[in-house]
């Protein structure tokens, strides 16, 4: 069932640079539908399903999640941390976190002078229940990365959890792969290290060098009380990216997506994301330039443990991916 698969992906450990476990899980999910599955040197997972059209299409989503990296273990057993990706300090206070080996901890901050509002990441620590450096060092070492502990909450047709960014994109691709019919040579890529600068997508797009690429990621919304201005809302369909801080999508690519959505009767909305990028930015700039687009799943509270999305948007994103892949005629440069 889709929800069970999604939950497994959301609970799977895999911060930036430590994507081995999530990569193995995704490999087991896509292998039955592909001809070959391999990893590149950076750790990107690349699954190839052979086609007959002579055109290569790349479908991608990043599998890494943001985290907190241990930079120091104090004498009293508390862990000092730094961020891996876009971690907000106030949002990282009073959280339950988990390490790769299953060690659990909670986060708090120096209360002598700071408040939740003024605390910097340097004032934050993880308490893993250890009383000394010696005790703590048996559980965790410098360089280990903690992630927010997952907690999947259902709220009618909507749901909340950490790591929707971008396990939701991964889940959409897995589900689409089960259902799609395509004549194209398909490369499904689950990228690493998106959260620190689109690094995995850069090498994967270079080696695959597709004729056309579609990235799946989450995007922010503007539909919560007094939110920053943005037109995207939950429940109004997958968002077709127009622009974010790393990419401007070629008009021919957007037109292609709109046409397919209309034909398949799938609602879509336009996305202009200020202050945030996606793998699409790296893919577009690969070699002599690649025609690339991005389908975003509207998500509230991005980069928090309570990222929230709507199951209708997710289902429509799966349908849209299938509709795009079913088209024989792909967008062409210059159109
Ligand atoms: Co992100
Ligand atoms: Zn993302």
Structure description:
The protein has 335 residues and is an alpha+beta fold. It has two domains: 2-65 and 162-326, Aminopeptidase, CATH 3.40.630.10; 67-148, Peptidase M42, domain 2 (Elongation Factor Tu (Ef-tu), domain 3). Helices cover 26% and strands 26% of the residues. It has eight helices and 17 strands. It has an eight-stranded mixed β-sheet, with helices on both faces. Helix 1 runs antiparallel to helix 4 (164-179) and helix 4 (164-179) crosses helix 8 (311-326). Cobalt (II) ion (CO) binds next to loops.
Labels describing this entry:
about 325 residues, alpha+beta, Aminopeptidase, Elongation Factor Tu (Ef-tu), domain 3, eight-stranded mixed sheet, six-stranded antiparallel beta barrel, 8 helices, about 25% strand, binds cobalt (II) ion, binds zinc ion
Q: What is the fold-level CATH name, i.e. the topology of the largest domain?
A: Aminopeptidase
- Please identify which CATH superfamily of the largest domain we are dealing with: Zn peptidases
Please state roughly what percent of the residues sit in beta strands, choosing from under 5%, 5-15%, 15-25%, 25-35%, 35-45% or over 45%. Answer: 25-35%
Most strands sheet: 8 strands, mixed
Supply the number of helical segments.
8
Helix/strand order, N-terminal first:
HHEEEEEEEEHEEEHEHEEHEHEEH
> How many separate structural domains?
2
What ligands are attached or bound here? cobalt (II) ion, zinc ion
Quick rundown:
With 335 residues, this protein is an alpha+beta fold.
């Amino acid at each position: 069932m889709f929800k069970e698969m999604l939950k497994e992906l959301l609970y799977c450990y895999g911060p930036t640079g430590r994507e081995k476990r999530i990569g193995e899980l995704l490999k087991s999910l896509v292998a039955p539908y592909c001809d070959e599955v391999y990893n590149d040197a950076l750790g990107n997972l690349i699954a190839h399903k052979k086609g007959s059209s002579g055109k290569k299409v790349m479908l991608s989503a990043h599998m890494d999640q943001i985290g907190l990296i241990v930079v120091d273990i104090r004498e009293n057993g508390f862990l000092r941390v730094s961020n891996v990706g876009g971690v907000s300090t106030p949002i990282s206070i009073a959280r339950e976190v988990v390490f790769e080996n299953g060690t659990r901890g909670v986060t708090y901050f120096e209360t002598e002078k700071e408040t939740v509002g003024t605390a910097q990441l340097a004032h934050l620590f993880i308490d893993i229940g250890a009383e000394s450096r010696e005790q703590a060092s048996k559980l965790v070492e410098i360089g280990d990365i903690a992630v927010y502990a997952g907690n999947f909450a259902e709220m009618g047709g909507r749901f909340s959890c950490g790591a929707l960014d971008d396990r939701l994109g991964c889940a959409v691709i897995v589900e689409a792969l089960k259902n799609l019919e395509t004549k194209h040579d398909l490369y499904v890529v689950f990228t690493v290290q998106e959260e620190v600068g689109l690094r995995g997508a850069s090498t994967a797009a270079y080696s695959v060098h597709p004729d056309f690429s579609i990235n799946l990621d989450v995007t922010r919304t503007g539909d919560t009380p007094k939110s920053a201005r943005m037109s995207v809302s939950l429940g109004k369909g997958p968002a077709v990216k127009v622009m974010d801080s790393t990419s401007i999508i070629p008009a021919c690519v957007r037109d292609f997506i709109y046409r397919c959505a209309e034909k398949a009767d799938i609602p879509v909305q336009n996305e202009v994301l200020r202050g945030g990028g996606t793998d699409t930015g790296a893919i577009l700039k690969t070699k002599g330039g690649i025609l690339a687009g991005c389908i975003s799943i509207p998500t509230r509270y991005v980069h928090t443990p309570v990222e929230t999305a709507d199951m209708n948007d997710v289902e429509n994103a799966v349908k849209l991916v299938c509709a795009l892949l079913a088209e024989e005629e792909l967008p062409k440069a210059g159109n």
